[in-house]
Every structure is written in structure tokens, then in C-alpha cells.
Amino acid sequence: MGFKKLFDQGDFAGICDAGAMAQSPEERLMLGIAYLRLKRSSEAEAIFEAINSEVFSLVKAEYYMAQIHLQRGESEKAGVCIDRYLAYYPDDDEARDLADGTLEGDDSLVDVASPGLAELYAGQGHYEKALDIYADLIFDQDEPQVRNKAEKVQNKFIVQTLESWIERIKTDEDSSC
Predict the structure, then answer these.
(1) 3 and 27 in contact (C-beta within 8 Å)?
(2) How many CB atoms lie within 10 A of CB 173?
(3) Among 34, 109, 140, 154, which is least packed by CB within 10 angstroms?
(4) Predicted model pTM
């Protein structure tokens, strides 16, 4: 019996018994969930860590797909790909430049600032980019709702900055011991 059928039937023990036969990422995911449902968290964690590692390395394909879409003039599709990539690699300056349109002939992926776009960036933790968009929106149309959202993002950005400072201080203290 296949993993999907066992999973659909809620036969988590059967999935765990057949765990060595899990081949595809979907089957391994079902195996991890089965371990988790059976409160075998150590085994579930090992499965999920392996899947996360695989996903982390494979998400680089999104970066190259963005380049292909840009070459074809499909900026919207490129934007989706680069946003997915940046969710995993937010500090990749080259990818940020690609998203900002400073590579590949300066074809900007983002032509129009909108509250939705700012929220998307903020949701991905790119607070500085979201604040830039909000600043443009507030300058163009001073709406209280946009200003409130911008203030919330600004607060998150401040917290993120302070947390990174604290982490650096801890790292510096640990390395000086």
C-alpha cells in the first residue's frame, strides 16, 4: 500500500513501518508527519531537518528561474521567483539587486509602489524595503491607514535591528571568553 493511501487512512504506524521505503520528498514529509502524530518527535525532527536542508539548497533554482523570466521580459514571474528565493536568502545582495532592478539592464521588477507590495516585503521580513515603499506612498498620498501600517512596520524594523545588535553583542562576548 502506498504512503498517500496510508496517510489518507490515518495509518501513521503503517507509514512509520514502511519508512525505509520513503523515496520522494512528499513521502518523507508524510513520514515526518506520521512520526510527529505518533509523538516520536526526535525521528520527526530528523526527517524535517533533512527535508529543510534539501529545500534550502534547491530553492536556489528560484534565483535562476528569475533570471530566465527577466530575459524573456516576464518581470512579474521573475518577481515571484526572486521573492521566494529571498525568503530563504534575505542577505543575498545580488538577488536583492536583481529584485530592485539594478542588474540585467535595470528592468525593475517593481514598477508601482502599493500598500500590498509593502505588506509583502514586510511579511517576508524585508522591513527596510517595505518602509521605502511606505515612504513613497505617504509622500504621494497621505492616508492615515497607510501611515499606521508604516508605523507598525517601522516598529518591527526597530525590533529586528535591536535583536541583531543583541545577537552581535552576545557573539562578541562568547568569542572573548
Answers:
(1) yes
(2) 9
(3) 140
(4) 0.49
Reported as a single tens digit per residue, the pLDDT across 114-168 is 777 778 778 778 778 888 787 877 776 767 887 888 888 888 878 887 877 887 7
- The CB-based long-range contact list for 16-21 (8 Å cut-off, 24+ gap) reads 16/40, 16/43
Q: Give the mean model confidence (pLDDT) for residues 46-70.
A: 90
Show the cell assigned to 94: 545580488
What does the DSSP 8-state code read for residue 89?
-
Give 115's contacts (C-beta < 8 A, 6+ positions apart): 134, 137, 146, 149
Q: How far apart are CA 176 and CA 48, in angstroms?
A: 34
Q: How far apart are CA 116 and CA 146, in angstroms?
A: 10
